[in-house]
Amino acid sequence: YPDKCELKQLHLVSRHGSRLPDPENIIAFDELEKIFANVSVAKGWYKNPFLMRKSHHLVKRGELEPYFDGLQSRKRYAKFWNGVEYDPEVIKFQSTQTS
C-alpha cells in the first residue's frame, strides 16, 4: 500500500492448503493399478498410495500453507502488525474447520 496511506484494516482471504485427490480420481488411480498389474514388466510396480477414506484431506504441506500465509502477511504488512498483540475479539479467523 502507498506510504502516504495508513492501513486500518486487513482482510486476508486465503484458500485452504493442498489436498489429497477426490474420490473420482482415487478410483482412476485404482483402475491404473489394475492395468499395471496385468502388464508383465510392471507387475507389482505401481500401488495406489491414496486411500478413499482420506479423500480431500489436507496433505502435510497443505496444513502448513495457512501458517506460511500468516508469515507472509506479517512480513508484507510489518508496519500494520508491529506492536499488535493477538486478541480474539479484534483479530478474527474463520475456517471451515475441516482437515
TrEMBL record:
<dbReference type="InterPro" id="IPR033379">
    <property type="entry name" value="Acid_Pase_AS"/>
</dbReference>
<keyword id="KW-0378">Hydrolase</keyword>
<dbReference type="GO" id="GO:0003993">
    <property type="term" value="F:acid phosphatase activity"/>
</dbReference>
<keyword id="KW-0472">Membrane</keyword>
<dbReference type="InterPro" id="IPR000560">
    <property type="entry name" value="His_Pase_clade-2"/>
</dbReference>
<dbReference type="InterPro" id="IPR029033">
    <property type="entry name" value="His_PPase_superfam"/>
</dbReference>
<dbReference type="Pfam" id="PF00328">
    <property type="entry name" value="His_Phos_2"/>
</dbReference>
<protein>
    <recommendedName>
        <fullName>Multiple inositol polyphosphate phosphatase 1</fullName>
        <ecNumber>3.1.3.62</ecNumber>
        <ecNumber>3.1.3.80</ecNumber>
    </recommendedName>
</protein>
<dbReference type="GO" id="GO:0016020">
    <property type="term" value="C:membrane"/>
</dbReference>
<dbReference type="GO" id="GO:0034417">
    <property type="term" value="F:bisphosphoglycerate 3-phosphatase activity"/>
</dbReference>
<keyword id="KW-0732">Signal</keyword>
<comment type="similarity">
    <text>Belongs to the histidine acid phosphatase family. MINPP1 subfamily.</text>
</comment>
<dbReference type="GO" id="GO:0052745">
    <property type="term" value="F:inositol phosphate phosphatase activity"/>
</dbReference>
